[in-house]
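Note to self: user wants both folds in one dump. Writing first protein now.
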Amino acid sequence: MKKICCLSMLLLLVVSFVSAQEGRQRREPNTLSKTEKNIGFQLLFDGKTVDKDIWQGDVENYKVVDGTIVCEGKNLMTKKEYENFVFRFEFKLPPAGNNGVGIRTKLDANAAYDGYEIQILDDTAEQYKTLLPYQFHGSVYRFVPAKQGSLRPVGDWNREDIIVYKNNIRVVCNGQIIVDTDMTEFVEGKKKSLDTDHPEHVFNEKGLVGFLGHHDPVAFRNIRICEIKSDSEYKMLREASERAGQRRERGN
C-alpha cells in the first residue's frame, strides 16, 4: 500500500509540472491547484501582501500592485532555508528589466558569489548587446550559459521553474529547458567560474531563496515552492520537464 501511495504522489507531481508548464491549469492567480496542494507546494504570495512571516530583506520595496509583487528595491528572500526544491513563479519584464533568483544563499550575501544566482533579464535590450554568455536570461550567473530565445516579448508574462537537487540545476522557461547542469566539478573545485575576474565561489548545500532586485520594476506572481524529498521525485520531475519541452517544440 505504501508503494502504491508513493507512486501515486509521483504521478501527481508529473501531471502538475507538465500542466503548469503548458498553462493548462485554469485557476485564479496566486492560488495553488488541487494537485499542487496534494504534492506539497507552498504558496509564497497570496496576491495581497508580502507576508513578513515568509519574506525578509527589502520587504518594503517590493510593492503589491494588482495581485503582483513589483520590485522597487534590492533583495527579497525567504525566511526559510531550502536544500532541494522546485521554485515556480511567473514574471513580467519591463524594457531592459533586470532581476535574478538567488538560491542556497544567505540574507546579507551576494548570491552570485555565495550560493547561486539565476538570471532574470530582458537580454534583448540594446544596452545588453555585449553580454557574456553566462549573463543571458536563465543562466547560472558566472557558471552556466542558458539557451537563448525562451523569453516572451517584453510586457508579457513568462513562466519559470527552477529545479535544484543536490548539485543539479535545471531551469525551464515557458516550457523550454534552458539550463540542465551538474555543478559537481565547480563545487569540488575542478572547474573555475567563467567569470575570470572572480574565479572562486562559495557553494552551500542549502540556503535562502528569493529575488535579487536592481530597482527595476519587474513583476512577479504565482510564486510557490515545493521541496524534493527523494531521488525518485527528482527523476520524475526531470522526465516531466522534458515532456513539457517536447510538447512546446511541437507547438501543442
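First done. Writing the second protein, which came from a different request thread.
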Amino acid sequence: MKIHLRLSLLTLIVSLLFSHHTLANEPTTPQIHWQSVNQTIIDQHIIPRYLQMADSGAKLSQQAQRFCAATDNESFEALRLAYHHAMDDWMGIQHIRFGPVELFLQYNRLQLWPDKHNTGSKQIRQVLSQKPHDILDAERFALSSVAIQGFTALERLLYPSTPHPNAFGGAGQPTYRCELLMAITRNIADIATNVHRDWRGGKVGFRDVVLSADHGNDYFDSSQEVSARLLSNLSTQLQSIVDQKLMLPLEHRKMELAESWRSRRSLRNIQLNLQALEDLYSTGFSGSVTDAKLDAEIRQSFRDAITSLEAIHLPLYRIQANTEADQKLQHVLESCRRLKRLINNQLPPTIGMTLGFNSLDGD
C-alpha cells in the first residue's frame, strides 16, 4: 500500500513538472484588448484625418468657385495649390478602404486609379465635347460615371497635356470646362464631409458600430475582426505602393502609368502613404507587439523607406534607368517589399491574428 502510494505521488510530481516545462516552452499569444486598439486608431488616426480631408475638400470647392468667377492666373495657381492640399489629405487616409467610404462607391468616386483602360480620359473628352448640363446638378453628378468624378478627373482639367488658352473662359463668363471643374470639386467636398460625418455622427456613427463589435453586430463578429481589417488595410496599401505605384511605371518605364503623374506628385503620394501607414502602425499595433526585435525592424523599415524617398529630388517622370536617383528609388522599392513581408508574414502570428481579406487580390 505504501509502495503504491509512493508511486502515485511520484507519478503526480513528474506529471506536474512535465506540464510546467511544456507550458513554459510553448509560445504564448498575448491577450490584447482589441476594442481599446480600435478606439485608439479611430480617435487618433482615422477621424482626425477624415476631418482634415473634409476641411481641405471644402476649401478646394470654394477656391474652384472663386477661380471660375475670375479665371485669372493668380486664382488658377491658388486652385492648383488647393488641389495639392486636398490630395495630400486624401493620401493620408487613402489606406482606409472599409467603413463609410465603401458606401455608394465613394472610395472610387474620390479617385479612380489605376485606370487600366484610360476610361477617365475618354469620358472627360466626351463630356467636354457634348457639354451635358443636366449632369452638373449635385445629385445627378454624384450618380454619374466614377470616371468623371474625383481627384483623377480634376487633375486632368488642372494639368492638361496640351494647355488651352482661355479654356476656362473669361471673368464672369466661365466655360463648360469651368462648370465641370466646380461640379467635381463640390462632389469631392461632399464625399469627404459625408465620410467624416458617418464615422462620427448620424443616428449610429460607424465609430459606435466598431466599438460595439465585442458583442457582435451586423458588420462585425468581434473587435479582433475590426483590428484584422485595419491591419489588412495597412498591408493592402503597401501592396498598392509596391505593385501599382512603383512597379507598374518602372517595369515598363512608362511614367504615364504612375499615380498623379500629370501633377508631378507620384513620389509625394507614396511618401504621404508611408507616413500615414507608419502612424497607423505606431498608433494601433506597435504596443501589442511583444517581440521587441520585430517591432524595431518594422519601425526601421518605415524610416528607411521614407528617408530614401526624401533623398530623391527629381519627380518620378524624370528618373532615368541606371542613374543615382533610380538606385535610390530601387532602395525605396526594396524597403517597401521588406515592410510588406514583415507586416504580412511575421506580425500577424506575433499578435495572435490572421491577416484579413486583401481588396487588391485578383487585380
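Dump finished. Worth passing along: Residues 1-28 have pLDDT under 50 and may be disordered.
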